[in-house]
């Protein structure tokens, strides 16, 4: 923004902005810190901030109770699989809507997006029945398919908005030069579309990673991802805050790290493409 | 478009149509098919298993006579309206405050968006702890010497839904702010200059010029917030499990409990159909306003 601001003003703004940011980040920070305390230190009065005996015992206890790696692996497969499958199906659809729009394109998009508003419980039981019939209950394959379907409207919509920004003239120029459909996709479309696809992939990965309603209801032991892992700590261990924090930290760490190293895509993706 | 001159245009058009089919088909079968199935079976007496003995509106009469359902409806109404208004207002005010260049902006935005990147389950657990009267904010503030300080919303049947609201706002406001900030950045600098030259106070500029110009951003934001409100089930499950008592129950949890815990499918289907009807009542006028009007204009 080119509005005239003095340097002092800018620093003041930065300080205010970062204070609000820290306030928002504090619950996450506190959870991470608590995970390194003993149970007694976790409920110490007054609260201990940094000066306590850092310990890893909570992580060991959590790991002993539930095998973190298995949940993590399930989460990776389910979130990754559903994202990959979703993008494979959505890219052609979004491409056709963006470059060969028909009169109905807008209606179809809107209609698809509106399914995101429908209560998921309304389709839970029929899908549950289908899962029993097909033997998909508590399998990763089943969850991959369901989460792909659930997030499909968002993937298509986001890809559509990104694809629409690609000027059609470039495609027409490449066609004039005799590019085949394959060349057009590979050498013209893909390089321009990749940033958009990357943001979409990241958003969808995070949405699938965090999906609790479907994963809790359609899995038991074998295919349960990290959301089930953390949910299992909610009631029985309710008062063991240090262990709860350790479990929470283990559940959110992959996303926090992933987000940190792909900040640009994260911001673009999570804001549904609104932030350029 | 000059496509019709080229022989391959028919192929391109056709392939485009075909490319869209798998997606439309899956969406159609899953969402519409399954939703219709649920609606049909909501008129039956199904208990443990779906059965086709239709009993008319019996399940609905029972539904609206159940206290737990009424509490659920009231809660989702409070949660929905408050979170819609508050996250829009707080998000916009924060964005307006921060509508200047900030150092390390991408990192800053990432931190703001972190809560939204967390599962509702984690959010629920963390806030269950922060708002816990025995261990959380209440204890800390009392420890500072304010012995009478009381902040026990989580244990208070009248206020527990607002405790859930706080957690929900924490999760979503950063996202709203980021969206609004993007919208504000899109406003032409000349508009600010013009309104300053005319001596219009900046709050008036925001209210009557900038906000109307940001309409698309507001629409996107509304859609995202609304989808979040429908999804509040996870948060309730982790933060309060519907308690204390039934004070923080929500419709989605009612449906789930009746279908899978109480073995009363018909009742669950009826409740989920009511949710569907509510969403449609809110959605349809908006769709007509937003898109029906435009079609006539163009």
Mean pLDDT reading of chain A: 82
Q: Total domains of chain B, how many?
A: 2
Q: Hey, which two chains have the biggest interface?
A: A-B, 98 and 102 residues
Radius of gyration of chain B, taken over Cα atoms and rounded to an integer in Å = 24 Å
Largest sheet of chain B: none
Which stretches of chain B are poorly predicted, pLDDT < 50 over at least 5 residues?
A: 1-7
CATH architecture of the largest domain in chain B: Orthogonal Bundle
N- to C-terminal distance of chain B: 18 Å
Strand fraction of chain A: under 5%
Provide the structure class of chain B. mainly alpha
What order do the SSEs of chain A take from the amino end to the carboxyl end, as H and E? HHHHHHHHHHHHH
Number of helices of chain A: 13
**Helix/strand/pairing class of chain A, anyone?**
mainly alpha
Task: Provide mean pLDDT of chain B, rounded.
Answer: 82
- Helix run count of chain B: 13
Number of strands of chain A: 0
CATH topology of the largest domain in chain B: MetI-like fold
Distance between the termini of chain A: 14 Å
Task: Describe this protein's structure.
- By secondary structure, chain A is mostly helical.
- Chain A has one domain: Orthogonal Bundle (MetI-like fold).
- Chain A has 13 helices and no strands.
- In chain A, α3 crosses α12, α7 crosses α9 and α9 crosses α13.
- The longest helix of chain A has 32 residues.
- The radius of gyration of chain A is 23 Å and the shape is globular.
- Chain A starts with 6 loop residues before the first helix and ends in a 6-residue tail after the last helix.
- The model of chain A has no long low-confidence stretch (mean pLDDT 82).
- Chain B has 298 residues and is mainly alpha-helical.
- Chain B folds into two domains: 41 residues, no CATH class; 242 residues, MetI-like fold (Orthogonal Bundle).
- The longest helix of chain B is centred in the N-terminal third of the chain and has 33 residues.
- The two termini of chain B are 18 Å apart.
């Amino acid at each position: 923004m080119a509005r005239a601001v003095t340097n002092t003003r800018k620093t003041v703004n930065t300080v205010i902005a970062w204070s609000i940011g820290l306030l928002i980040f504090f619950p996450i920070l506190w959870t991470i810190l608590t995970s390194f305390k003993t149970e007694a230190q976790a409920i110490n009065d007054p609260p201990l901030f940094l000066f306590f005996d850092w310990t890893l015992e909570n992580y060991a206890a959590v790991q002993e109770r539930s095998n973190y790696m298995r949940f993590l692996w399930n989460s990776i497969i389910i979130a990754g699989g559903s994202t990959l499958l979703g993008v494979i199906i959505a890219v052609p659809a979004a491409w056709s809507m963006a470059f060969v729009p028909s009169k109905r394109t807008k209606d179809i998009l809107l209609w698809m997006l509106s399914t995101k508003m429908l209560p998921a419980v309304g389709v839970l039981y029929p899908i549950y029945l289908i899962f029993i019939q097909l033997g998909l209950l508590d399998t990763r394959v089943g969850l991959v398919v369901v989460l792909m379907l659930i997030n499909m409207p968002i993937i298509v919509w986001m890809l559509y908005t990104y694809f629409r920004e690609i000027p059609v003239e470039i495609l027409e120029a490449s066609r004039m030069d005799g590019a085949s459909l394959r060349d057009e996709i590979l050498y013209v479309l893909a390089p321009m579309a990749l940033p958009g696809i990357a943001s979409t992939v990241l958003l969808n990965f995070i949405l699938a990673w965090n999906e609790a309603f479907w994963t809790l209801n359609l899995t038991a032991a074998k295919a349960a991802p990290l959301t089930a892992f953390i949910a299992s700590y909610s009631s029985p261990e309710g008062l063991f805050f240090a262990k709860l924090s350790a479990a929470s930290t283990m559940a959110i760490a992959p996303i926090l790290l992933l987000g940190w190293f792909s900040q640009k895509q994260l911001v673009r993706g999570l804001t549904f493409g609104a932030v350029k | 478009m000059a496509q019709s001159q080229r022989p391959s245009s028919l192929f391109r058009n056709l392939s485009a149509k075909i490319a869209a089919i798998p997606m439309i088909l899956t969406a159609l079968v899953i969402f519409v098919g399954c939703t219709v199935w649920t609606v049909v079976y909501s008129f039956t007496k199904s208990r443990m298993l779906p059965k086709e003995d239709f009993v008319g509106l019996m399940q609905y009469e029972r539904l609206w006579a159940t206290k737990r359902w009424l509490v659920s409806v009231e809660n989702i109404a409070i949660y929905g309206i408050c979170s819609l208004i508050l996250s829009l207002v707080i998000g916009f005010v924060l964005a307006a405050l921060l509508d200047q260049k900030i150092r390390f902006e991408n990192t800053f935005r990432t931190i703001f968006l972190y809560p939204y990147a967390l599962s509702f389950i984690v959010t629920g657990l963390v806030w269950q702890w922060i708002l816990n009267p025995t261990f959380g904010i209440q204890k800390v503030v009392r420890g500072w010497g304010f012995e009478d300080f009381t902040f026990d919303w989580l244990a208070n049947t009248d206020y527990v839904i607002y405790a859930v609201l706080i957690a929900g706002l924490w999760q979503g406001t950063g996202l709203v702010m980021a969206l609004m900030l993007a919208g504000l950045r899109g406003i032409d600098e000349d508009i600010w200059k013009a309104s300053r030259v005319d001596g219009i106070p900046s709050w008036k500029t925001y209210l009557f010029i900038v906000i109307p110009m940001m309409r698309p951003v507001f629409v996107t934001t509304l859609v995202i917030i609304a989808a979040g409100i429908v999804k509040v089930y996870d948060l309730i499950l982790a933060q309060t499990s519907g308690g204390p008592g039934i004070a923080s129950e929500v419709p989605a949890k009612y449906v789930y409990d009746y279908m899978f815990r109480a073995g009363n499918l018909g009742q669950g289907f009826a409740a989920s159909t009511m949710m569907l009807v509510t969403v449609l009542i809110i959605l349809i006028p908006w769709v007509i306003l937003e898109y029906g009007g435009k079609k006539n204009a163009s």
